[in-house]
## 1
Amino acid sequence: MVRPKINISEQAYASLKEQARLNNQSPSAYFAELLLIGYQQKIYQQQASSS
């Protein structure tokens, strides 16, 4: 498995892999999902702070 180049701690990475395994998802699909969620939260925070 190729480690994605995003800045997360080793511990977070390990728990993400475990979570992906429990969900029977490929880890990269799980990461894509997390990145999407993080991206949406970031946009939401920007909108919240600009209003």
## 2
Amino acid sequence: MKHNAIPIGLAALIVIIYFSAVAVYAVNAPIMDDYIQFLGFHYFWESAADTWDRISLLFSQPQWDGGPQSEHRIFIARLASLGLLEAAGGINFKLLILLGDAFLLGIMALLWRLTPDLEGWHRLPVVLLLFSFIHYEISFWSSASLLYYPATFFALLTFSWAERMKGARGFLGTALSGACSTLSQTNGLMAFPAAALTAALNRRYRHAVILAALAALAFTLYLWDFQRPAAVPRLDVTWQTPLLVGRAWLYLIGGVFDDYAILGGSLLIAIWLFLLWKGYWKDRFPLFALGVWLYVSLLMVAFGRAALGPSALGASRYEFYSAMLVAVTYLALMERGLSRSLKRLGFLSTTLLVATIYLLAIPPAF
């Protein structure tokens, strides 16, 4: 690993600017889902009959008006809110937001560790993209920051553990991190399947079977007494459904490219088909598995939101997964043994693109 104080210092500056902005502009007040996911949860927590009811509440879907209001089981977010309630003596939404945003640091640290051959300069576009406000809804909203960021962090941690899953310690690390991803947000369910697929591609069949078994267990427990929220529209299946979902998926994949989302999404898919053809999974298990997980996560969003139209698909919180996909794709290409001149071109062009995204994201965020 090549260390250089200047890129590390610039990365630290980007992070400081991000958290300073969040600390100043985030508000200590509930927003939309916060009323149910935190205030409603604490109401039911205080009125729970016994310890078993409280444990069940931690793992249940957010409830209000006699029915589920979300498809997510948000154990991690609820646990965080209880911890802050104990520490601060009340619900502080700004602290919840900052706690959720802190998982971005974990994601950055894992990506940094998983790309040991890259120079510090080459990682800067990833840092700038992660700590941009392209996904400002998550940055300033506790109900999003404690779902999206933890789900991604724990998914990547799962893939990191799964790569070296040896003995009881490796199995326990994989199982616990995968469970945490699952209990952060619904798409966390796909952490175990993505790891199993990558293990199978690497012909590590024993690990693939173990991961598939964990996936089956996670799905079984997650879907136990699961109810579809009334607010989530049904997607009527017709001959047009695949086209509708496919277009929504492409749009979500290329979300960071704004008006050129469909084109950007198509380009990202083409690049990953190239990486698949070149056998990228053979030497970069965690990053390849993360790419698979991100694609499947956006496909899940496409199925759930395609019926709501472009306005729903364009929500900035979904652009976080698109930004992550751009970051992982960039890292994958930079690690493909490119010549020095091609790496320089890739770094400069990506830096220009990401800097543009960073600047354009500021006005709508503030």
## 3
Amino acid sequence: MSDPGNKISLNGALTVLGVSGLYVLYAWLSGGVRADQWQLLVLFLGCYFVGGAARRFILAFSVFLVYWWLYDSMKLYPNYLFKSVSIQELYNLEKKFFGFEYAGKIVMPSEYFQANLSTFLDVGTAIFYLCWIPVPLVFAFILFLKDQTLFLRFSIAFFIINLIGFVIYYLYPAAPPWYVTEYGFIHDYSVKSNPAGLLRFDQLIGFPLFEGIYSKGSNVFAAMPSLHSAYPLAVFYYGRKLGSRSLNAFFFTIMTGIWFSAVYLNHHYVLDVLAGIICAVGGIWVFEKIRVKPWASALLEKYYKIISAKK
């Protein structure tokens, strides 16, 4: 029996080509189309026109492509152009709520860890931080293969969580703790993204792994909320619906490990982590409330039919 996903409608093809053309135009006007943008576009068009499972896959993961486009676009419109960056204010709040006495002075958790480094923790936290994007994507792929209804719930909730986080980035630009460690409380908008404590892992392995990753960072002043902390909570929440104890334990370990790593590596304050957790809870709550509405349910059903082999 032929796969209905192999059929290409004229309207569908024109829509995809039109959207692709607009994306290229946008990238060109934004300073030129980069190699990674061309690669993503070729992947998208290739999967769509091959048809079948490849088309269903790329249309399903279009949610993540839009997320990537929004994240990447933050480089063009940095949040510090719209509002003043919180540097000392957030630092003082962290010290007020989570400061404690150590070596004769009041320190916050990230400062304590910087004074008590461990090679074991350097390696462990780096491994946890590597899971930030791969784990949600692998989890989404597993859901796409096993339970496309749950895939839609997870991927759209993931997208909403990011929208909430991005809005907060622009409403409250905030410097990460490593910025204060390196530059104090001055406002220097020329500073580039920094792997902070992850540099120790690069030095251990003799390869600039995280230095390369963070050189592509979109915004230094997007510490609040910590979306690093939000993503694994979304994975854990929807992962529980698969009913696997071992998988639940794995996702819980990844989640709590990333939360700890964010502070240990001097990337985030505890307040950033808590804000990321609230973002995740809020995004999931908003989506789960909306999805049961008749209009939302109808849209999800249409999307399900597009990405599913079951027609």
## 4
Amino acid sequence: PHLVTGEGALAQEVMQFLTSPRAAEQVADRTDAEAWHPLEPCWSEEAYTSKFRQVQDALQRGDIYEMNLCMPWSGCAPGEASWSIFERLASHTRAPHTAYVQSGPWRTMCASPERFLAKRGRTLHSQPIKGTVKRGQTPEEDDALKCALATSEKEQAENVMIVDLVRNDLSRVAAADSVCVDELFGIHTFSTVHQMISSVSCTLAEGVTPLDIMQATFPMGSMTGAPKLSAMRHIAAMEEAGRGVYSGALGYVAPNGDWDLNVVIRSLMHHGETGRVDATFGGAITLLADAQEEYQECLLKAEALRQCLVP
């Protein structure tokens, strides 16, 4: 809680969000800190489908044109096992934006493939992810799946909506005519999945502060949907429980003022005293989406982390 400072309602709101894992939920429902319980979804497929339909209704009304619906998962592991779980997670995923953070009894083990914002001098870089497919069992199948992702109209539509949102966010702090899409629909390969990643950058306008940048861009548009504020209101209503640190950002600030922040996805939150493990997985929903396919995508994203939560 001492890592974030500031004044006014915004700072208080951010502090409240970051220091309340799974919103107002309590951790006392798991008391056996010596037990291992596999990571399992807190929603049934039927419950997910019901919420999916609510999102589609909002899309049909024109309230939003994309929303990231996320599903909570829960498991249990011995309180002293956090670091060994993290080592397994980092080794298995080899994600580029991996982080381990302990705050009080909570340990956040993050294996994120997604960059929220990197600052290099007066340049900002953001790399939103939208589009996921599993790795193939053979080189031929892997190439075919990669090609299918690269040419998917549905995935491209989801990706470009978030690219536009990120461009709009960056334009609030950018010098005139400096926002640029450096890569559109790039396919990046990780140990368990292929991802569609785009890259957006800008040159900072004179006088812009780090707080200005956060106010303009946080949270990452890939974790909300578009328009951002409307999507966030629908997320709050449909997901019911807050996301805690999930969808937030972890990273570092260098002595020269540069920084690199990830998006907190593909992460486990472990309570060292009760043994409770929280995780969240989701994906973008548009009018082109299919409920069963989106549910299966959540399971795919969860699988690598489920494999790490074992004795």
